[in-house]
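Deliverable D5.2: sample structural annotation.
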Amino acid sequence: MKDIKATTQPNFTLKMDPTEVGSGRLDWKKLLPAAYAAGVRFYFVEQEPPFERPRIESAKICHDFLASVQA
């Protein structure tokens, strides 16, 4: 799973401005229930540079958000 900042501009070079899951433009509150309904039971969070905070802090932010969303 990845998320991108709302400020990411559409482009043809696949350049994304990454952010923590739940902090960007993707609508996880709709995506996660749909994924669950389709049979998805496991997720992997991926964060790419540039990193704005320590990676473990970023992982905790993602975890805390995902734990708060009911699938």
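Annotation notes: DSSP finds two helices and two strands in the chain. The chain has a mean pLDDT of 90.
The annotation will be released with the project's public dataset once the embargo ends.
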